[in-house]
Amino acid sequence: MDMKFVDDLYEMYKNHLTGDEEDAYIIVDGILQEISKEDVKKLIDELSDNERFEMFGMYLYETFRLKVAQEGIGETLNEDDQGKGYIH
């Protein structure tokens, strides 16, 4: 995603970054606390179709990834795995 808003945001904060992934979270969270719903809609409208697709794709990916982690997938067997490789 090569959005001017992100480029401007980076320029504003680049001298304050430590290289930690948490930097991005803190900065984005602060921006989201201050930005209005109308501003969000305006920024989304300014995105190209490809950028909107990428943004929604990242949202789906992260939401799905969090759901999998919350449900503990990988710690239990899926229904279709029952009995495979296990002695009953």
Itemize the secondary structure elements and their pairings.
Elements: H1 4-13, H2 21-34, H3 37-46, H4 49-71
What does this structure look like?
The protein is mostly helical and 88 residues long. The protein has one domain. 65% of the residues lie in helices and 0% in strands. The longest helix has 23 residues. The N and C termini lie far apart (50 Å). The mean pLDDT is 83. This is DUF6154 family protein.
What's the β-strand tally?
0
How does the overall form come out from the CA principal axes? extended
Gap between N and C termini, in Å?
50 Å
Average pLDDT confidence is 83
**How many helices?**
4
Radius of gyration (CA) equals: 19 Å
User: What is the percentage of strand-forming residues?
Assistant: under 5%
Give the helix/strand class.
mainly alpha
Give the fraction of residues assigned to helices.
55-70%
Describe the largest sheet: none
In total, the number of domains comes to: 1
User: Could you name the ranges where pLDDT drops below 50 across 5 or more consecutive residues?
Assistant: none
- What's the order of the H and E elements? HHHH
